[in-house]
Amino acid sequence: MSLPHCPKCTSEYTYQDGDLLICPECAHEWKEGEDTEVQVVIKDAHGNALADGDSVTVIKDLKLKGSSAVVKVGTKVKSIRLLPDATDGHDIDCKVEGIGAIKLKSEYVKKA
Q1: Which helix (H) or strand (E) holds 110?
Q2: 1-36 domain in CATH 2.20.25.10?
Q3: Which PANTHER family match (predicted)?
Q4: pLDDT tens, position by position, 32-81
C-alpha cells in the first residue's frame, strides 16, 4: 500500500496512525481524501486582500530596528511578496527604494 506524500512539505515518509496520516518531518496530520489546502488570506489595514506582486502604500511612519532609517507615511512599495507562514507578524517581503529589502506588517499598509 502506497501512502500519499505530505501536502504541506511533500515528504514521502508519511505513516498512518488509525484514520490519520502523519508526516514525521513537519508533524502535519490529515485524513486521507480530506481537502488539506488551507488558504491564508493576508489583508491590509482596511481589510482588502493582498496578493503577490501588488503595490501598497505605508500608512504610518515606521522606524527600522537597528537603524536610523524611517519608512515615511505615503511611501509606495511595488511588487510585494506575501509570507503566509510568518510567525512574527511581518508578513510582507519587499524592497523600499532608498532603504533596501525589508519585511513589513500588513496592518501598516494599504493596497495602492
Answers
A1: strand 109-111
A2: yes
A3: PROTEIN YJDM, PROTEIN YJDM-RELATED
A4: 776 655 567 899 999 999 999 999 999 999 999 999 999 999 999 999 99
